[in-house]
């Protein structure tokens, strides 16, 4: 028997696939079966079966030799799940006192079980936040999401002043380290230098006279920044 999730007609597995494809395709493009398998920790043959079913249901389009992309119906379904996830994270931090490094897995479990009505009430109780605790935009109930023009810290120009906007939320240890270093969404950073040959980036918290932090390239590629005040 097929089990649906929350008040969605999709199974938990289907929602996970659509969300993974959304993240892999970003602003467009295609996701290969192997990439989806890696993202979900599954075998390529099992992914091929689900891809076929989702394509037949009209949620994705499969283009031979290129991969899959979401249809408008699939994108809407993916953003619905992402909204649930990010509102739940925000509620756990804002109302229940969770730390930002503990909410990702909780939200992964809960996002499939709650109704859209509950999510909307959580969002209303929080004052309709635009971003989750890690800085990621929260989709609207209508399925719209802010299109950002952010860049990674590794791409920030030395000598510039930027604002940290978003960090990846899938590694609790990394989130704890970022919090210890004062590197949270909203922080203003002066890019004071970068070592050559893909070396670490040196930043100053709050501006040119702020406390110095050295951020390795691997970490700098999962920290997203924008213009100050943008």
**Roughly what percent helix?**
25-40%
The top-level CATH class of the largest domain is: Mainly Alpha
Tell me, rounded to a whole number, the average pLDDT. Answer: 93
| Spatial separation of the terminal alpha carbons | 49 Å
What does this entry look like structurally?
The structure is a single chain. The protein is α+β, with helices and mostly antiparallel strands. The chain has two domains: 1-145, Arc Repressor Mutant, subunit A; 151-227, SH3 type barrels. The chain has eight helices and ten strands. The strands form three sheets. Strands 5-10-6-7-8-9 form a six-stranded antiparallel sheet. α2 (33-40) packs across α3 and α4 (72-94) packs across α6. It is globular and about 55 Å long.
